[in-house]
Amino acid sequence: MTDENRPSTDPYKGVRDFYPEDMAIQRYLFDTWAVTAESFGFERYDASVLEPAELYRSKAAENEEIVNEQTYTFIDKGDREVTLRPEMTPTVARMVAGRRRELPLPLRWYSIPNLFRYERAQRGRLREHWQLNADIFGTTDQNADVEIIHLAASIFTAFGATAADFEIKINNRAALTRSIEPLLRPGARLNDMLKLLDMKPKMELERYREEEMKLLTEPFETHSEVPSEVASVLAALAALGVHNAVYEPTIVRGFNYYTGTIFEIFDTNPENRRSLLGGGRYDNLTALFGGEPVPAVGFGMGDVTMRDFLETHDLLKSIPEKLKPGPRVTVVNDGAATVEDAARVAALVRDRGVNVSSNLSDKKLGDQLKLAERSGATFALIIAGDTKMELKRLSDRSITRGELAELIPHMQ
Q: Which of 35, 135, 188, 377 suits a disulfide with 330, CB 3.0-4.6 Å?
């Protein structure tokens, strides 16, 4: 095979390979997400990455850019049009609608799905990513909005972030509509103005003003008093100790299914000043599947932007030892012991709940120790022909001697 015909070692554009050191960070993200969500009483669910394409073409879930330009859609062998899910909300709405009469509402559900969008890969945005989705179904009470935002804020503090590291920006879609509609010029569409507001942070102010005046009779910002719906959410969050939430009249959220509270969380560091999380209330989405709608509020938080945030704020150093790549202990043998002896001792250590690997080669002891260090092991357990062993901490070369039972507590 010639060089030009060889397959590349690079992954598909816009996706990632996860080597062990990357997988350790990913596990840390997922574990922290799961533990924090469950501390709020949320239960985990999941679904297939494959959905019927019509799920994303419905008016209730309509987002033209995603449907027309960003979905991975194909025809399967049964001549069905199938899409790799670009978001999780339509899926969970379908699941809840399918069993609405059986489910004990209100529900607190979360999932960590992988999602696919065909878009230009850039910092914080790839063609495949994982996302924490958390939703409360079955109540219109504003306390559910407050709880879902409180959970979102608690995710960041669970990673060691402080309130100064991020800001929660809140708006209300119903109040936004109520404020914009009286300002619309004849023939102008509300959705066009909402899309323009959503794009405002990415536009030059002069161009934004020019487009705004094509749609409105006067600038929208002059009508940006804090709506009562937002003021009550801010007050309730403050009572829970969340003081970094503010009203932001230009927060829109891109999906048309939002009906009430909407919010985004932004990094405050100038090196990574971007949206990290978004969500809101969507009370009518399950009606897409027939029957009475089940009100809901939720958010999604991507793993790519989460990792960028943690790196920006130097918060990855707190990854638990058990999640770091490599075994906790590698059993090595000097010339008086065999590979079989190392495997036997490793099995005994493993039975005591310690992650352990053993030497599989006839390399010299020094080379075995180098391999143990490269593997990410914390300790090397050196065995000889008798029952005495040495436990060597590879970071500082300190050694503890004794029988196996005496050494195992030092490995924990």
A: 377
State the residue for tokens 């599989």: 360
Place of tokens 């099995």: 347
Alpha-helix residue ranges (DSSP H) falling in 165-277: 173-180, 190-199, 205-215, 228-239
Tell me the pLDDT of the chain (412 aa) as tens digits: 566 778 888 888 888 898 988 999 999 999 999 999 999 999 999 999 999 998 887 644 445 556 667 888 999 999 999 999 999 999 999 999 999 999 999 999 999 999 998 877 777 678 899 999 999 999 999 999 999 999 999 999 999 999 999 999 999 999 999 999 999 999 999 989 998 988 888 899 999 999 999 999 999 876 678 999 999 999 999 999 999 999 998 898 877 789 999 999 999 999 998 999 999 999 998 888 888 899 999 999 999 999 999 999 999 887 776 677 778 999 998 877 888 989 999 999 999 999 999 988 888 999 999 999 988 899 999 997 666 789 999 989 999 999 999 999 998 7
Q: How far is CA 13 from CA 78, 128, 261, in A?
A: 28, 10, 36
Contact 282, 272 (CB under 8 A): no
Distance between CA atoms of residues 276 and 303, nearest Å: 9
Give the C-alpha separation, 226 to 247, whole Å. Answer: 7
SS3 label, residue 399: strand
| 292-302: burial string, b at 16+ Cβ within 10 Å, e else | ebbbbbbbbbb
Within 10 angstroms of residue 321's Cβ, the number of other Cβ atoms is: 9
d(CA 229, CA 190): 20
Helix ranges restricted to H, 281-338: 303-312
Both structure tokens of 314: 């130097």
pTM given for the model: 0.87
In angstroms, the CA 295 to CA 136 distance is 8
Q: Which residues pair with 129 in a beta bridge?
A: 115
Taking a C-beta distance cutoff of 8 angstroms, is the pair 389, 332 a contact?
no
Q: 349: which 2 tokens?
A: 């250590």
How far apart are the two ends of the chain, measured CA to CA in Å?
50
For 389, residues 6+ apart whose C-beta sits below 8 A from its C-beta are 345, 381, 382, 383, 401, 402, 403, 404, 407
Quick check: helix, strand or coil at residue 6? coil
